[in-house]
């Protein structure tokens, strides 16, 4: 059953507008059915699924803190602004998000009860990536050159594509790919797709290369993972987003750090050929030159991103303890944004008329929304998990066990977790939807496996 989890987690098309947060997508309901099936069939007992008392206390305190600060922001904006905070909607979304995080942890605790279930999940990750490329992404690339597959791409877009409710211009021709001529998978836009690939899938490939581990149990060569990583980098170029270029750079940097000897020489030679090819294309191909200039070397239109990020951190510095509350940033964004960054068409034609300033930095969002009362404990918790994961990796290789396959499996999971955190930490400087099902699923999976492995270590 765990083989189905990754493809299901990608199905985040909004079902009903107006429903709070993650509750308006398919995965949560399918996962809930799977969870209750596990319990009903007695494959797992509810009393065996535990979350520490500290975690419960933290979630209660966090919810209360958010309710208080959203209510405070509601009073401030109602008194001083024409951009009021939607009190009940914001509190509802926050409670749903926090509850979903707890549910996903319980769900993964119930689903990953054996190494077979873990292996099946990891295999699904690679298979899902390949199928996504073949049926969705490569046709989207083709449609950037020719309309031959527009019908298929638009059909997939209408059925599966998650879309921004307030920006229909992205999908005017039937789908994002046929309208913007950029690759987006099922995501609402290219940068969100690139972030998903970088945070969820590339760590699986890098960990396989690093540990020379095959999730299919030695059925494919490790060069298969090199080829899939190279294909992924090429695809990210067609996303035509700064996020994609940044992910490619990070992947190459990590790859050079984790391979050794002849393998590093092989990687460096391949990168040399790719660099020569890129330089040649840049010089000889005007279209490629425009692409690189627009999204990397001479990127323009960054004023609103910079202004929004500055505004978020000013917001945090003004309300450092509790933040301003989940979803309550619009009034404060306009209040704190530097005037020098607002002299552009997008601000006056989109942001100002809608009285809405989109959040374009996840780190800024976290600190502005939640304040130190939530962020400091969360960061300490993550740091402890990283320390535990590194310790477990060392313990796995030091302990004398007959089943080397188990050691290889858990080492693979730990390294994928660490790489994923690196990508998340860097990409969180930009914007993506961090509450998507695949993020909650994979990070819950990693934490559950680390916790179970830590219990084994304690004996």
From TrEMBL:
Transmembrane segments: 14-36, 56-75, 87-108, 120-142, 190-211, 223-239, 245-260, 265-284, 366-386, 407-433, 439-455
Location (main, coarse): membrane
Gene Ontology terms, MF aspect: ligase activity
Compartmental location: Membrane
Domain O-antigen ligase-related stretches: 228-373
Topological relation to the membrane, as annotated: Multi-pass membrane protein
Transmembrane in keyword set: yes
UniProt keyword list: Ligase, Membrane, Transmembrane, Transmembrane helix
Pfam families assigned: Wzy_C (PF04932)
UniProt-recorded name of the protein: O-antigen ligase family protein
Organism: Lactiplantibacillus brownii
């Amino acid at each position: 059953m765990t083989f189905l989890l990754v493809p299901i987690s990608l199905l985040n098309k909004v079902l009903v507008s107006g429903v709070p947060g993650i509750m308006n997508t398919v995965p949560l309901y399918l996962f809930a059915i799977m969870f209750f099936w596990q319990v009903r069939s007695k494959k797992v007992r509810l009393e065996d699924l535990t979350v520490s008392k500290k975690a419960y206390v933290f979630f209660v305190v966090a919810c209360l803190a958010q309710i208080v600060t959203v209510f405070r922001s509601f009073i401030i904006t109602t008194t001083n602004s024409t951009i009021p905070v939607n009190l009940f909607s914001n509190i509802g979304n926050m409670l749903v998000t926090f509850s979903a995080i707890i549910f996903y942890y319980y769900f993964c605790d119930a689903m990953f009860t054996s190494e077979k279930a873990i292996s099946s999940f990891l295999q699904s990750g690679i298979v899902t990536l390949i199928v996504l490329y073949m049926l969705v992404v490569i046709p989207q690339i083709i449609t950037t050159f020719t309309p031959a597959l527009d019908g298929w791409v638009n059909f997939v877009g209408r059925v599966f594509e998650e879309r921004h409710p307030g920006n229909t211009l992205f999908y005017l021709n039937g789908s994002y790919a046929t309208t913007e001529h950029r690759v987006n998978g099922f995501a609402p836009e290219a940068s969100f797709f690139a972030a998903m690939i970088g945070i969820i899938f590339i760590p699986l490939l890098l960990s396989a290369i690093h540990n020379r581990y095959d999730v299919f149990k030695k059925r494919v060569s490790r060069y298969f993972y090199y080829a899939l990583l190279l294909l992924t980098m090429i695809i990210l170029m067609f996303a035509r987003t700064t996020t994609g270029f940044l992910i490619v750079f990070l992947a190459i940097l990590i790859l050079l750090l984790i391979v050794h000897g002849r393998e590093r020489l092989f990687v460096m030679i391949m990168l040399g050929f790719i660099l020569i090819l890129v330089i040649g294309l840049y010089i000889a191909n005007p279209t490629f030159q425009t692409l690189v200039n627009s999204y990397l070397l001479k990127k323009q239109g960054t004023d609103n991103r910079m202004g929004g990020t500055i505004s978020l951190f000013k917001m945090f510095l003004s309300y450092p303890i509790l933040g301003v509350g989940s979803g309550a940033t619009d009034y404060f964004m306009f209040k704190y944004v530097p005037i020098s960054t607002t002299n552009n068409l997008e601000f006056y034609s989109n942001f100002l008329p809608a009285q809405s300033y989109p959040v374009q930095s996840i780190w800024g969002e976290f600190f502005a929304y939640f304040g130190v009362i939530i962020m400091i404990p969360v960061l300490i918790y993550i740091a402890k998990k990283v320390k535990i994961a590194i310790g477990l990796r060392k313990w796995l290789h030091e302990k004398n066990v007959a089943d080397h396959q188990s050691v290889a499996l858990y080492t693979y999971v730990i390294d994928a977790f660490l790489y994923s955190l690196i990508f998340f930490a860097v990409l969180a400087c930009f914007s993506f939807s961090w509450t998507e099902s695949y993020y909650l699923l994979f990070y819950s999976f990693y934490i559950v496996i680390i916790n179970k492995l830590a219990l084994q270590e304690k004996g």
